[in-house]
Design brief:
TldD/PmbA_sf; 2 domains; protease; six-stranded antiparallel β-sheet; Metalloprtase-TldD/E_C; metalloprotease; PmbA/TldD fold; 446 residues
Amino acid sequence: MAQAFDAAAQQVLLTQRAEEALALAKKLGADAAEVGASVDQGLGISVRLGEVETVELSRDQGIAITLYVGQRKGSASSTDASSASIKATVEKALAIARYTGEDPAAGLADASLMATDLPDLKVHYPWALTTDEAIDLALACEKAGRDVAGIHQSEGASLSSGEGVRVYANSHGFLGTQKGSSHSLSCMLIAQDEKGMQRDYDYTSARNPAMLRDPAEVGREAASRTLRRLGAQRPPTGTFPVLFDPSLSSGLVGHLMGALAGGALYRESSFLCDRLGSQLFPSWFGLEERPMEVGATASSPFDAEGVQTRNNRFIDQGSVASYMLSAYSARRLGMQSTGNAGGARNLRLLAPLTPRDDLLKQMGRGIWVTELMGQGVNGVTGDYSRGAAGFWVENGEIQHPIEEFTIASNLNSMFAGLVAVGDDIDTRGSIHTGSWLIDAMTVAGN
């Protein structure tokens, strides 16, 4: 990187700025205040056909201030953390608060919920990577993929490496800081046959660069995934079991969490309204978050409101065991925060795992979906309809690639019809899951 990032010095500086903003807010008449400040620095490289396309060095910072006058709320933000800018931002937030309407649910999270256990969760791994070294890694990744016989063209390889610091403080006296890092490498390739062109990709991502997969392995896997899509056909129309690839089943978990989110629930825009305690999945299935997991993608000892994070069991023996609530949404629902301001952290399945080959045998005749397109998911009704591509399966064996079809159902039916979960766990994101086999979905193909 062009300039070394001193995370410790940034922690000290952001802490001072946050404390300055809180003191000023109190002096100017705010009854309560909270401040979030962050600074991030990163390096991004993209190459294509053996040539460097872009080199991007980024540095972003910001400070956001929310003030309360009674139960009137005002928020303002700035990318300038100077004292003059902080003063202007506090004054702007205070002016907004004085002219907004009263909201009985507005205010800081309860002081009794503030985090007191603040361990180092080992989520900061700086990468002393020069621009030339980053370019070499991206070029090696793409070359390994392009060298595979049958690859026709490349859309390039990209490497990104970044680290940052965030600080959250409020007028309860809570102040929490966290350093973090994120590194990734990806490659997208194109293959062609008499039926046309196909593209696919692979990537690796981790907080610790030592945990990234070998660049050549990523390139070769991208090539393998691309070549297997050649000769795609359209599947028949009908009702078939569907196996979701791990990269896609994590999206199903995402739809579930969106429906369990307090904001959707108090607005009555979720298909899981008033479903607490009701059966949603088979009894062998569970889902929980583990925000204090050391080294994990989304680990944090406190949420976006300073509330102590904890393990939350959202699905227990197939039933809805908990909603995902911030302080505000909890008040709107007459409940208590679950420490999820800012979302869920490190979602993990609690389920028996089955080898993917066994899932295919269990499926018999159906579809293995490896790509989804479009945004056809209705969070209010649970209706699900997406364009898809993947592979046709007969007698438990993969027959040929398929494309240009849609799969449709309702999330309620899909969750209830979950047959098994694969042991092919994708650990690259904050949701760790294997393949999901759904008993039946409507397929529109030929």
